[in-house]
Structure formats: C-alpha cells, structure tokens
Amino acid sequence: MSTTLGYSGSFARAASAAALLLACLATPALAQQATLVGVLGSKALLVIDGNAPRTLGAGESVSGIKVVSISGDSAVVESGGVRQTLRMGDTPVNISPTAGSGKQRLVLKADSRGHFMNSGLINGQVMRYMVDTGATSVAFSQSEARRMGVQFENGQQIMIGTGNGTVRAHRVVLQSVRAGDIELRNVDAVVVPQPMPYVLLGNSFLNAFQMTRTNDEMVLEKK
C-alpha cells in the first residue's frame, strides 16, 4: 500500500521517519482486555491483559485504561474514547477503540457456558445482561425494574410466552440502554413478574447492530 522512493542522504532519512510516523498513526489500536477482580473502598482492582492486578481510583490510569467511576461491585473504565462498565464476576471484556472504522462497536467474550454476558446501564443504572437473539425485546423482572427505577405499573399489559408458559407482562419504553460506549434511546422492553438472574438483551436493542460471531467472540457494530 505504501511506496518506497529512492532518496539518499538526510532527505531520505527524513522521508523514512515521516513515513514511519504516518504508518503508526494509521495503525488501528488493538483491543485491550480488562477484568474487575475486586473493589477496595474507593479503589478498583483491575487485571489488564492478564497482567498482575493493579489498584486504581477514579481518574487514575494504567496501560492506557482509565478508571472513570466506581460504584458498588462495578467500575466504568475508558480506553481510546471507549467506555465500558466492568462488574465483578464478569468474563474479561475487550475494550476496542473505534477510531479505525469510525463505527461504534462492542466486543464480547463467551463465558464457560457459551453465553455472552457483561454489565451495562439502563436509564443510568448498572445492570448485568445476557445477549439473547431469540428475545423480541429487552426483558427483565419486576424486582430489577424497581431497583433501576423503571416505572412499569402503568405500562401496557401484554401476554408473552416463556419457558414456563404464558405470563402477563408490562411493556415499557426505556429512556436509554448502554452497552460499552454505545447508547440507544427509547428502547422497547418488557417487565415480567418472575425472578430473572439478569437482563435479557433482546432484539429491540440488538437490531441496531451488525452482529458477527467467531468462535467465542461476538462483535456488535452499530449500523
């Protein structure tokens, strides 16, 4: 893709240095893998790319990853303009800069059961989600709705099919759903009475993305 010109002397050295600099600037940054392994008061204990754990407070950085905020058992980190919510117990998360493609993207790793799970935000509240391409909408329990401050009681009542039969649910519109650095607004969701261990991230969110899966890695790229 590049062309080498046969200059000599100092001009050639200067041209080579400039070409090297341009090549470095054009090379996309590689995704980094981050894991939250603990929260110690106001500090997050992070493992970056499998290295030894590092203790960081809000505003502190290591290996190009900055801790933005810490709350409960979760932390928001940023790298190359990409923000991710990490939660203790989640699988390692790839933080993938978007500057090379110009598109927003999220990279997820499957857990030991083959599920793609991570932490995100609904209406600004931290939640844990599982990607579910078979679910029509984002879905979560009434108890989770109350925890996140989602007012569902006045939502449209509908009947939906579940693994345990047909149940009555409430349809709501979420102000925002955020996964990684990608936030969608006015997302349809259903709230069910049965307990659920996590939020199902269904097609009312996923349809905004081009999805690619390779082995244990899933890439969601904003359309």
UniProtKB/TrEMBL annotation:
Residues 127-205 form the Peptidase A2 domain. Residues 1-31 form the signal peptide. One of its GO terms (biological process) is proteolysis. It holds the Pfam family gag-asp_proteas. CDD domains: retropepsin_like_bacteria. Gene3D superfamilies: Acid Proteases (2.40.70.10). InterPro entries: Clan_AA_Asp_peptidase_C, Peptidase_A2_cat, Peptidase_aspartic_dom_sf, Retropepsin-like_bacterial. Keywords: Hydrolase, Protease, Signal. One of its GO terms (molecular function) is aspartic-type endopeptidase activity. This is Retroviral-like aspartic protease family protein.
